[in-house]
């Protein structure tokens, strides 16, 4: 297997009932934004959790040629945004960033986020709206300048201006630092102007891969045969 930024071989995670992931082989080069699509239950979130080291699995995952796991080095290298983030209600935004920075062993700064993206660091999580909480979660994912970003529907709760701000930042990280990103989305074609490639899962297996032609026609999202 080549030394891609992210290299996955034989990734298998099976839950009761047989759903999960079944022998996923995938290589993602440095500086690539990969859109990960598929219907609910196809394995998108499971794949991201396995790569993030939050779920046990069979197979092998390497980052820059080294096994990726739960070590401090792995935690520093990967920024992960789940669909739902539990934030401490009593804490301020600043205290929350400090907490997650300590857990990952990095500095409590999310480099690149513009002034005003977050509310004041002294504001408590309890008073934030859903969209404002999501902005804090995005800031947590960007702590410590990670080499790999795992983003599970990252802009679902953001307004149009915040979405554009965030995607501009991700593109800049890719172009300037070679950051690799996997972005799970129910509609990958909507990321045509953001992502370089798309991979579609169906029933925990790779069903289709596509390279986005930024000047080409849109390809509508369809459920693959056998998907649920």
Would you write up a description of this structure?
With 228 residues, the chain is of the alpha/beta class. It has a single domain (6-211), classed as 3-Layer(aba) Sandwich (Rossmann fold). It has 5 helices and 10 strands; from the N terminus they run E-E-E-H-E-E-H-E-H-H-E-H-E-E-E. The chain has helices at 44-51, 72-77, 93-104, 130-141, 160-177, and strands at residues 6-14, 20-28, 33-37, 58-63, 66-67, 78-81, 148-152, 180-184, 197-202, 205-211. It has a 6-stranded mixed β-sheet with strand order 6-7-8-3-9-10, sandwiched between helices. The protein has a 4-stranded antiparallel β-sheet with strand order 2-1-4-5, covered by helices on one side. Strand 7, helix 5 and strand 8 (180-184) form a beta-alpha-beta unit. The longest helix has 18 residues, at 160-177. The radius of gyration is 17 Å and the shape is globular.
Strand order of the largest sheet: 6-7-8-3-9-10
Range of strand content: 25-35%
Q: End-to-end span in angstroms?
A: 32 Å
CATH architecture: 3-Layer(aba) Sandwich
Q: Report the order of strands and helices.
A: EEEHEEHEHHEHEEE
Average predicted local confidence, pLDDT: 87
């Amino acid at each position: 297997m080549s030394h891609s930024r992210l290299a996955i071989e034989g990734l298998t995670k099976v839950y009761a009932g047989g759903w999960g992931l079944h022998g996923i082989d995938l290589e993602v080069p440095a500086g690539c934004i990969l859109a990960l699509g598929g219907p609910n239950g196809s394995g998108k979130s499971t794949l991201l959790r396995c790569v993030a080291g939050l779920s046990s699995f069979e197979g092998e995952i390497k980052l820059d040629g080294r096994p990726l796991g739960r070590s401090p080095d792995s935690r520093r290298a990967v920024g992960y945004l789940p669909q739902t983030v539990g934030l401490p209600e009593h804490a301020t935004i600043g205290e929350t960033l400090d907490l997650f920075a300590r857990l990952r062993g990095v500095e409590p700064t999310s480099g690149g986020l513009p002034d005003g993206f977050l509310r004041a660091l002294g504001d408590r999580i309890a008073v934030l709206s859903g969209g404002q909480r999501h902005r804090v979660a995005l800031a947590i994912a960007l702590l410590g300048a990670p080499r790999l970003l795992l983003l599970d529907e990252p802009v679902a709760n953001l307004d149009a201006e915040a979405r554009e701000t965030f995607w501009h930042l991700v593109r800049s990280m890719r172009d300037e630092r070679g950051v690799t990103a996997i972005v799970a989305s129910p509609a990958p074609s909507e990321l045509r102007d953001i992502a370089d490639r798309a991979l579609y899962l169906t029933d925990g297996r790779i069903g289709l891969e596509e390279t986005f032609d930024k000047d080409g026609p849109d390809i509508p999202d369809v459920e693959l045969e056998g998907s649920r």
